[in-house]
Amino acid sequence: MAKILSPLFLPIKIYTKTTRKLYDWTLRWSKTKYANFSLFLLAFSESSFFPVPPDVLLIAMTVANRFKWWIFATITTAGSVLGGILGYYIGIALFETVGKAIIEFYHLQEFVEIVGSKYDQNAFLAVFTAAFTPIPYKVFTIAGGVFRISLQDLIIASILGRGGRFFLVAAALRIFGNKISNIIEKYFDILSFAFMALIIIGFLLINLLK
Q: How many CB atoms lie within 10 A of CB 37?
């Protein structure tokens, strides 16, 4: 347990500073003509290797143009699911090289085995849970290839989980608009720790169900 969770307990100042830099860097793309492509690329890469969740850019773009909320949610979902398929094939064909490097970078080696036990029980539910929650989705996509789960299950569960999450976020922004964006900016540090806490809770719950 300690080995699984230890990389998540980063020093507070370092975690906040790094997260803030990545957040600001990601937001800058929302103000360029490549915003839609950047949103797709961010969602795609986060599903297999990149640390910043696409919700960050989705929020910024939806706040800027609330009437396109469903377009942005669709782009994010499509990119994320396709990225999940890439992660799946990394697990199947490139785990010893690319896959292991990604897992080791996030210090989640032991977590892969836990994911494998979840796949033995209910692969569809495991993928859906990771896709909808802050649990690292990329570990599930790569592990999906490693443990040879059904690609069809991965795709359908990802569409439902990722789509449910991103459409929920975008719809909330369509309704509440700048209020949510302002809250994120004002309470960024608190929210970043809350997000980390949710990840830790997710790890704990999955480990308890092992």
A: 13
Q: What is the dihedral of CA 153, 56, 89, 112, to 10 degrees?
A: -80
Q: What per-residue confidence (pLDDT) applies to 2?
A: 45
User: pLDDT for 71-115, tens place per residue?
Assistant: 999 999 999 999 999 999 999 999 988 988 988 887 777 788 888
**Is the CA virtual torsion 154, 143, 195, 53 positive or negative?**
negative
Any idea which residue has 């796949």 for tokens?
119
Runs of H (alpha helix) within the chain: 2-5, 12-28, 35-46, 55-64, 69-93, 100-105, 109-132, 137-146, 151-176, 178-186, 188-208
Sign of CA dihedral 81, 176, 60, 183: negative
Longest dimension (CA), the chain: 46
Residue 23 exposure: Cα atoms within 13 Å on the Cβ side: 17
Using one digit for the tens of pLDDT, what is the confidence trace for 104-152? Answer: 887 777 788 888 888 999 999 999 998 998 788 998 999 999 999 999 9
**C-alpha atoms less than 13 angstroms from C-alpha of 71 in its C-beta half-sphere:** 10
**CA-closest candidate to residue 48, choices 129, 1, 103:** 103
